[in-house]
Amino acid sequence: MYKKLKEKCYRANIELPRLGLVIYTFGNVSAIDRKLGVFAIKPSGVDYAKMKPDDMVIVDLEGKVVDGNLRPSTDVNTHLVLYREFPHIGGIVHTHSTYAVAWAQAQRPVPIYGTTHADHLACDIPCSEPVPDERIEEDYEIETGRRIVEHFRANKLNPNEVQMVLAAGHGPFAWGVNEEKALYNARILEELCRIALLTERINPQVQRLKPSLIAKHYNRKHGKNAYYGQKD
Fold first, then answer.
1. Could you list the active site residues?
2. 190, 171 Cβ separation under 8 angstroms
């Protein structure tokens, strides 16, 4: 019943090492089937080279494991919250990639300094607030997801347009309409974090990209009259 969903999730997970986004067993990808009301996610602590499609764990939107012999990723409840609250996303990637984690540990959003950033986002890469002490022991993973959702709502960010975030002190999450787009956004997130760090190192007084260039670069790829790429 879940063979196709497990295969999609497996293929996405084994892309993480190839993309340079994980080492050892760090990170995870999930993929959801909205019609079935379940998602597949990487099993916890299993080496990517040793994983098989059938190792993927199927979880419903109440957080119950409905298929699989292994424990799901420890981040499963963060994925769960994001799937519940952002109903249009179809895949989620969480990694501990170097540059994105560095910005998350600094608890800073990533400023929009140039057109490479503006090609993908018309705003800074957001950084959610830290999980409060009283929620860490029992509800840490759920609260991580809640902090992301609350940050988006408080700052009027559209998760269908801003498809990446830094969880303060933790690391990056990215999503998309499917697991392939989520992978793409995770790789872009890491590169934007790297470029921003290098930019600040070269010029600590660097100014944000001017609004006219932000609008131009974002809209030519994502706007109503976008003209980047080829016509279908």
1. 119, 228
2. no
